[in-house]
Amino acid sequence: KKYDPYRPSFHTFEQISRDAERLCQELHPKAEEETRKIALLQKLSDIATEVFGEAEVLPFGSSGNGLALANADMDVCVFLNSEEGADEVSPVEFVERIGNRLEQDPDFENILQLKRARVPIVKLNHINGIACDIGYQNDLAIWNTRLLRAYCKIDSRVRDIVVIVKHWAKRRKINNPYTGSLSSYAYVLLVIHVLQRRGVLPNLQSIVPGDGDIPIWDCQGFNRYFFEDVANLGRYWQPTPEGLQQSVGELLYEFFRYYASDFKYTTHAVSIRSGGLLTKEEKEWTKDHTQPQNQQQRQDQQQEKQQTQPKDKSQPSEDSQPLDPLQQPEAEASPTEGEPDAPVSPKEGEASDQQTASSAPPENRPPVVKNRYLFCIEDPFELNHNVGRPVDRFSLFTIRGEFMRAAKILSRNGDGALGRLCVERE
Ligand code: CTP
Ligand code: MG
To answer: Where do the record's region annotations for Disordered lie (predicted)?
Structure first.
């Protein structure tokens, strides 16, 4: 174990833990919000049934895994059971048909049909104040929601830490995959990884009652097996004594410290499925891939960008210095690589979102979509999906700066530290 000269005292951890408990209570959605969500779910279910015949609407994401903050968006997924089933209705057709039907309902506003997103969805706001994303036939999303929920059920500290990390990421404006930062889902995976390392959580995907091989439960071509019966987890796994002892305050500090200085962004990939780290080489996630983007995808992307905040170009704040001068960010995230005030310019051959290496004038270049591997976070089931894909050089620099700032704030006097940690970034 590395010596950490900045490690706060026991007393500081206790203070942070007390503040964390209070903050989690404040951030917890009220019963009234739950009621509005259930009403919306029912309404969407009626509409889906009207449009497609027999249909089931299931919540996923934070509405299904118990990790919602107050005022969180609702993610739902529509499954068709009728004879006009999934085989007949393509994702694009689904988005179009339900989108057009919702347009006619005055209760829904800002309806957006994203037909060529990685996962096609309809985005909307309901007049009761809930924002909602509607997806289609996405079994894996339901299963990864259940996996996250199972991890949360194992230990109450998981939810507390996730809720604070999500709140921090929102306040610091690094929780928007459309502008290059990470989804909440990515942050949850990052938290689970650290808790697995610290002996607080097991790897549910490797626990098999009876010690046999890991079963293969196919879902959309991936293995969705995990040990879900957490009430009986004790028979197969125990937290380490250290894992049991650590307070929420200590674990929060360790979370930020790990991504500020231990995690090797240039070589490592976070993998909760394997209970630890993989290398980018093992994953063959070493070279960014580009693929042609069609007109529809480009329109969707532009529409989506307009709906989300513009990319924040400010540098990490003054107090975002590395904790340890020997552990500066590696070159890929260094501000010296690009203009000090602009996104770091891509190196030759590493086209950014809307570029190719072609020498044609920009308007004649075919647009491309990019798979980036700067921050590698393996999806627990969809193993070829890097959940950190939206992160580019500039946003990586910003995110790492925020991890460092957070670890530094928590390592000082714990009094009011959580408040300072989550101050809204301009
Ligand atoms: N998801 C996914 N792959 C991603 C992002 C999201 O499969 N790259 C799915 C996951 O099932 C995840 C759900 O979409 O649980 C919702 O993701 P997200 O909105 O990022 O997380 P929430 O927990 O809903 O967080 P928030 O409350 O901030 O919306
Ligand atoms: Mg969500």
So the answer is: 284-367
